[in-house]
Amino acid sequence: MNLTLKVWRQKNKSDKGKIVEYPVSDISPEMSFLEMLDVVNDQLIEKGEEPIAFDHDCREGICGACSLYINGEAHGPGRGVTTCQLHMRSFKDGDTVFIEPWRAKAFPVIKDLVVDRSAFDRIIQSGGFVSVNTSGNTLDANAIPIEKHVADMAFDAATCIGCGACVATCKNSSAMLFVGAKVSQLSLLPQGKVEATERVKNMVEQMDKEGFGSCTNTGACEVECPKGISLENIARMNRDFLTASLTSA
Ligand code: SF4
Ligand code: FES
Q: How far apart are CA 91 and CA 97, in angstroms?
């Protein structure tokens, strides 16, 4: 396949950045999107040019690092897949492909296609955990019976990989789907209920501090989420947050 890539190039945080065109040839339809970028980078290095910086780690849809806006869609044209799971057979010979980083105030561009998603880490640090007494009396988690449908809902929420597609695709740059999933995966389970009130208040407060926008129920986040995280998690978080606000000082 021969393609024309239009790639966002930006030297650093303060650089203005611009789209640069790269013609690429002999791309196999069986390559993943990131393998195609590897080929482009090899060619740039051979020519003595700066390779395109992009984020990746597992290349298996697990880590959430490979976050690209491809032809105006978070993680590209596929549904339920991350950029690393996207294959070049999704494109046609002769296509022009625009590749940009996530666009959100809370995710500043570090270089080219790499953004700083540490705002998500700070939200997790503010409450996305369960405190466990490790002095020797820790109860085996499996000793507490949990109804199957509750365990399933918690598991579904826990499949969020923190990629940030929900934020990037939302016109308000809202992080509600991510935070809703991270609150739900714990608050649904008995072990997570102990700190549920403080957790939801702290995580929502941190989310607001980081500069993410409000949710206006467009549902775009759910559509673009590679893990199919449901809007129900936002509704559950809103209910938990309201209850926490009314019942605690
Ligand atoms: S909710 Fe979905 S889109 Fe948002 S960070 Fe989690 S996996 Fe990514
Ligand atoms: S590189 Fe880990 S999800 Fe894509």
A: 9
DSSP, res 32: B
Q: Which residues pair with 7 in a beta bridge?
A: 20, 99
> Do the Cβ atoms of 76 and 83 come closer than 8 Å?
yes
CATH H-level superfamily of 118-247: Alpha-helical ferredoxin (1.10.1060.10)
The answer to whether the beta carbons of residues 209 and 201 sit under 8 Å apart is no
pTM for this predicted structure: 0.95
Task: Tell which one of 182, 229, 231 to mutate to probe ligand 1, the residue whose CB is within 8 A of the most ligand atoms.
Answer: 229
pLDDT digits (tens, 9 = 90+) for 181-191: 999 999 999 99
Give the count of beta carbons closer than 10 Å to the beta carbon of residue 132: 10
**pLDDT tops 90 at residue 227:** yes
Q: What percent of the chain has pLDDT over 90?
A: 91
Residue-level pLDDT at 249 = 63
Out of 166, 173, 184, give the residue to mutate to test ligand 1, the one with the largest number of ligand atoms within 8 Å of its CB.
166
pLDDT in tens, 76-102: 998 999 999 999 999 999 999 999 999
Domain assignments of the chain as residue spans, ordered by start:
3-111, 118-247
180 lines ligand 1 (CB under 6 A): no
Give CATH for domain 3-111: 3.10.20.30
With b for 16 or more beta-carbon neighbours within 10 A and e for fewer, the 98-130 pattern comes to ebbbbebebbbbbbbbbbebebbeebeebbbee
Could you count the other beta carbons within 10 Å of the beta carbon of residue 231? 17
Nearest-ligand number for the alpha carbon of 237: 1
